[in-house]
## 1
Amino acid sequence: MKLKNKLSLQFTFLFAVVLFVVLFGIYMLEDSTRKVSFYDKLEDRAFVVGEFYFREDNMTKENFKEVIKKFPQTLSNEIASIYNDQYQPVFIKENTARWPKEIIQEVIANKKIRFTKDDQQVVGIYFVDNSGNFIVIASATDDTGKENMKTLSIIMLFSFLISLVITFFLGRLFATMAVNPINKIIDKVKIIRATSLNKRLPVGKISHDEINQLSITINNLLEHLEQSFQAQQSFIMNASHELRTPITSIIADAEITLRNTREVDEYKSTLVSITKDAERLNEIIGTLLELAQINLDRSELQVIQLDEVLWEVADEWGKSESRIHVDYGLAVNAGRYSIMGNRRLLFIALSNILKNAIKFSNHKDVYCKITLNAESIIISIKDEGIGIASSEFQKIFQPFYRVANSQKFPGSGIGLALTERIIRLHNGKIEISSKLDEGSEFRILFPR
């Protein structure tokens, strides 16, 4: 079902419920008013009947009989009864209803009662007259009122049905108007392909409008996709170059060696060169696989002391020509550097940064420090090496990217990409501060 039809039906259903409640309330209120109004009329008739018969002693019998013939019945099925204190009917003995003694006693006790019996409304009134006390009970059927209520219910029913039809089509019209911007967005998104990810959806002036928010969200998604495609293309180009170099070297060495008969030492030299290139190729492929397959398996999570991991990394690289200085802050913060994570991955991440610090500082001293603040555990690794230009801070985390002044150093440019992904999997982030020819400082922040 299309969204506009679904919205129309939902709107119509909601309107139907509200309209039904309103019409039902009006009907019940009107019916209650009708009953009260008819009780008032019936009470007036009871007073008239009582006054009429109580004046009988002021007329001759012939005059009274003549008046009775002319006394009209103004209400449908009207029946009036008059009783004395002994519960005996008086004045009216023909065509009168016989009311139980309990009803008459209730009228005497309450002076006035109203009730419904067998589709008839009944009023009872207690009269005090100079000739004695009497009870007048009058009953009638509100045929006219009920007929009016029946007519009103038919009118309401047809009005209800017609209103629902009108509401559905109006709701469908407004739903079409509301959905139309979304359809435009769909049409524009349909034409965007991998080769046209630079296209963006138009955004209106009202920033808080939901349609604009949708356009902005899709534009952000397209931007991320464009960046991902560009990064993928860059990765493929760099990977091809990095993989082609050792393969070309291996093929060249083998072909040159096979052209002529060589001495044993020359064969050995060629094989050593081929082995080195093969090892480099194997290292690149291994790192690429590790980068592609790296994931934080929840089953491998454990509580890790980051100061212990840093100590292991420093000990691993302590045999290099650089002196590694480590400040653990044990006197103040011993045992407070724990996070949930994967020990092996964190070792690789810290090891890559420390290895780069040693390599790009020409084996000068390297300083490692672990500290705390209100939100984070901070590991700082600082060197006195070649430094990084500020324009390249974000690029160094791209696979195979190498800064301009690092070309004379061996490496594939994958280590920092691997490190950044591991840190991000642990909800951490990396901050860099560096100056060319003065050194760099990498600060890794893990949430506490």
## 2
Amino acid sequence: MAVFQWSGKTPKGIIESGEVTAATKEDVIAILGKRRIVPTLITEKPKKARILRFGGKIKDKDIVVFTRQFSTMINAGLPLVQALEILSTQVENKIFGKTIAQIKTDVESGLTYADALKKHPRIFSELYVNMVAAGEAGGVLDTILNRLAAYIEKSMKLKKKVKGAMVYPAVVTGVAVLVIVIIMLFVVPTFSKMFAQLGGTLPLPTRMVIGLSHFIAGIGGLVTLVAIIGVIVFITQFRRTEKGKKISDSILLKLPIIGALLNKVAVAKFTRTLGTLVSSGVPILDCLEITAKTSGNKVVEYSILDVRKEVVGGKTLADPIKKAKVFPPMVTHMVAVGESTGALDAMLSKIADFYDDEVDNAVSNLTAMMEPLLMIFLGTTVGFIVIAMYLPIFKLITLIK
């Protein structure tokens, strides 16, 4: 897979450009064709050499602290270059410090702050760069930086909630499977040897458990392990393709409980990102393009790009959002009210706050529901194994009596 830079014309004759990850240029043409874009130029983006660095990964928390401190310094009247120089020496992360020093050098050489940030896409997202550019153009950089810091903090909280919802069931399931495997590999074989010495026909549940134990201890365990690894590798590789990610994201959104949670997360992220960009003075078409790229879900991304095409054609934002199935009716109505009253950014922020609370409730409900289900699964499985192992002993006691 490689990253291709492209430019092309829409059916309206508007020139657009961007980047897409694909295997070949033909795949890029096919992807653009689905968006009804006629490519005029497609070039493979040169790969940057990986440099081994020490000092730790740059986290969202580092960017939040830097953004808030930088905003305070700008608001206090410090020159841009001086503020960057101070921050480059006082940040804890050494890699981040070197990056800030490089940005300071670029600003000194005549680049705008936004253009200097653009040279570090792995640290500063397109959303970050565009908001900074809007802040520089409007002379309100300190205000924009505060909004950015607040946005990143809320995004971090949202990400933490989703991870918490996924990690807990995964850990409990992992422990349950580990307990069962240990019983099958070490406890059941001991009983099996004892029953073999006694002779006679064992009850059906006991034979089932012993058979499963022999399967796991023998080649069956290796086959199962290889199959699990194979499935994980296949899913990982499949999700690296454009089509694969779209299919898997579509399946995830349709899942009974997880799907509803992911949908709420997507709506919260969409409204929060769009509201922050609109309130910062970024043009609406750029807002939609950036929001699509940062959605984290291909189904939502394509829906937002479809909305953007409709807006380019002269429609309001609410009408195409209504057609997109990923957005609930409440979002459509509130966006329509926001557009008609001229307070779209405030309305989007209210929707984002509402869906943040909805995600909180969904995570709490999911955790509360998964806990007893996992306990029932573990209790039933271990209970069945214990009963199956003790059935022959009960039978033997009866015979002795």
## 3
Amino acid sequence: MVEAMEKITAVKGMPDILPEQITMWQHLESVIRQLMRVYAVSEIRTPLLERTQLFKRSIGEVTDIVEKEMFTFADQNSDSLTLRPEGTASCVRACIEHSLFRNQQQHKLWYMGPMYRYERPQKGRYRQFYQLGVEAYNFPGPDIDAEQIALCARLWQKLGISSMLSLQINSLGNNQSRSLYKQKLIEYFTAHIEQLDEDSKRRLTSNPLRILDSKNPELQQLINQAPVLIDYIDPESKQHFLALQQQLTLLDIKFTVNTRLVRGLDYYNRTVYEWVTDKLGAQAAVCAGGRYDNLVTTLNGPETVAVGFALGLERVLLLLEIVQQKIENSIDGYLICTGERAIEQRLKIAEQLRNLLPNFSLSTCLGAGSFAGLFKKADKSGAKVALIIGDDELANGTIGVKFLRIEKPQLTISMEEVTTVLGDI
């Protein structure tokens, strides 16, 4: 007796993106690419796999990402490799490796692609997820922070989702003021250690700022009474933060100062911000970023100030679904050939039409079928027009054009008229 073979499915938390979904993805990606050109940001592409040490040194060994969420394995040479859990560290590594920071060169870079974290899959949070990342190097002032936030605001506007997003900002200060604040937090939470849950107790000495991110409702009152970071930041960082607020006000970008806002990665300093929504349940943060002026030197690069952000494409797409911005997955034309000679020639005819109409998306009916059945296929394809060629049309050099989505009389045109009639479909 032959045993039934086990059905092979996708890896948990790594969903397929199907043809009916891809049009919205392509629309979002197209808007992003256009916007990057408008802001003169150059694209960079880095590998999916990096040496594990890159993320341990950049993100921080006591962060949740490194401790719990990375996909790490040894290759055939016993080298420890990791699927990238975020893009900033890879971008910095590439810039150092290829000397892009030499002589304090300024760069604005962007990348887009899959990231990997071992998380509990849920709507808007996957183990393979897609991010847009934007980074800027050797721009020390708050104006670049404001420009990146303005870029985000313009993206929301172009996508029609501005009303669903709000901006929260904060400052972490420099390393010294942040260390002082960490110590104050440790002292405060240690005095109330009996109220902490196990996760917060674990973070108390390793990364106390992360306690402020706790979603445990029983801890919220304790967190609300904790020392406030803004009271401990250094004067220079405070001035940077005030200047950022002035720039955002000048740009008419509304914001809220959230003194509890921290970032989960160790490399942040000074400006941190999040674009948040109340439309996606627990997945409130759609986009997050800030400054990381010390990361480049941490990875043995030259002194280089930096700022960047990342946004989750899946979460943006969920917001687009809410506002019902559906982009139809349609094609322009569907070629129907009938008659022995026309069917023999249909691939050649299709190629001739593609030569005449290089931007016209054309599907060709392959295989046999009744004339009525072929029209049903044309209509089901979503095509705007059906192009009909039988043996008589082939002999006469003509083509029938039936409009499928608008009320318009059927036409018979010559091949020479194809460009004029179909060019703007």
## 4
Amino acid sequence: MLSGRVKTLHPGVHGGILAIRSDASHLKAVADAGISLIDVVAVNLYPFRATVTNEERPPTFDEAVENIDIGGPAMLRAAAKNHAAVTVAVDPADYPEILSRLSSSSEASSSSSGSPPGGGGGEAFRARLAWKAFSHTGSYDAQVAEWMWNAVGDRAVDPASGAQRLAPPPEIVVPMRLSSALRYGENPHQAAAFYEDLSLAEAAPLGGGGVARSVQHHGKEMSYNNYLDADAAYQCVTDLAAPACVIVKHTNPCGAALAAPGSADLRPAYRAAVEADPTSAFGGIVAFNRVVDEELAADIREFRSPSDGETRMFYEIVVAPGYTPAGLEKLKGKSKALRILEAPPRARGKASRSLRQVGGGWLLQESDAVCAEDVEFTVVSKAQPTEEMLKDLRFAWTVAKHVKSNAIAVAKGGELLGMGSGQPNRVESTRLALGKAGPEAAKGSAMASDAFFPFSWGDSVEAACLAGVAAIAHPGGSMRDQDAVDCCDKYGVVLCTTGVRHFRH
């Protein structure tokens, strides 16, 4: 009926939704069939994502399938298609305005010969609600498709590990919702916005924590670069199991330190992170993996630059998993502009989807979720590491994972001394890291590389040995690995391989 608008759908419902009010044949058809016109359609779809991400009671495959809404999307799509006459509601936040417009139109119709279509309010308003409905059902279907591919998609054997991995889906749709419009992008002439990935919005235990779920308690609006830097800092600090502080500038950790073993006091770690590179830390992002209390907040508020002992340190953002009420109030007093974010931590060791755009397409990969506890540091040198050396190697290795390649990190006593990042060759990164550490601090330190030392072992490995580095870790895998071993044996330096590479482009 209705010129073919209703074929397989129940006319009692969809005839009343889809009838074109200006088409006399449509109105006669529904009248002859005894069908009432429907002017408003409001639907809340089955909570599919919440169902399939319920870790307390994971659903069976059949239970998940039963939570796929069919009738709801059908009615929403029908109402959205006929938005010229029908008001469609998918978001409870829109209910007040819809009710207000319905009330106004009801009052208007009582003094006229008939009521305007869709309860009134204007076709532009209904068209916007229709767009929202199509976006909503599209996002819903994308979430169902993603879950179903995870359940029934093709598996392939990983040649490196021998484990089965889920093959890439032939098609992919990423459901996203506008979180905020940004003043500009990386530069003032670039428009920008921040979107929330809805496939992770209800799945924080599955890796959906982090900056996108954060609550801003204070400060100026977040910018494009703020989000990038805050994410880099929080990703790094939540990769550390012990209480820690990480300071980031331009997405690279410039300072990082652990609290003393057995201590929850983060004040020494914060100070050590600043002292690693005070110049870079100024204007950076400070991240913690524990709650910020009043004492720590007071340190952040009052700490003066080690460079001159007078200038109070300035930061763009402080991000942590929580704040005590007194700590939050103390921190707010540092600056009206300081952005204070409270973010749920990422689930350590759980990979999630990572997408990156290139010209004309997208690259998809699993996030790098390998943690230091998952890696075996195999000693390949004659010299054997002490327990303290291994702790420093693991710490340096974790920090290097979050430094742009080619990445080198030098650490000692749970503190980052220096790092080299983003250089086109590892030799230069090593030189920068050792230079930032300084000749005295580098003695007895640990050095980690994100990838193996290839043909320049004499420049990189020997430079570290000559600087007094006591232990080195790299993935291994180069045809010249033995050259690095021989060099370390020559100087009595510990060399470990991890078998895990951490390129970060």
